[in-house]
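Exercise 3.2. Students should predict the tertiary structure of the chain below and write it as structure tokens, then compare their answer with the key that follows.

Predict this chain's 3D structure.
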Amino acid sequence: MNRLNTSTQIPSEQEQQDFYKKLRAKLVSYLTSKSGKKSKFTQYLMFVPDLFHLLVKTLTDPKIDKKSRALIGASIAYFVMPVDFLPEGLLGFGGYLDDLVIATFVVNTVMNKLGPDVIEKHWTGDDKLLNVLQKIAEVSDEVTSKIPVKSVLARFIKHESKDLE
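Answer key:
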């Protein structure tokens, strides 16, 4: 059986914390700027570092099955891909909105399959995880409507949901 060798594939705890702190600091700086204050999605962008951190921590949890790990790994890869539906390189922090929607979908899917306790123990955000997921889910349709290939994303999400059942 192939086992995931997390020591070579996932950054160290210190590197993860450094990335998390840097991303959060940059995000706070942006959100207090003039353009950051104008964005109607500002309150949701603060969840980006917390959800990324949650995905990385959950990936290393031995209670997570292979299919869920694959889905979590794919969402982490999507976060770090330079080119995606809403690229951060072109849109700045607004480019994290699609990453946020996908991360929310993945966390919800895994939580529904394995139970909230398996996921919540890795959550480091200030708000309760279920409240955060609900807030993001409420605006996800508006976010995905901005994605030019919405139907492709919707089909992917539908297909992945069926595979995990």
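Discussion points: The chain has one domain: 12-164. The chain has a mean pLDDT of 78.
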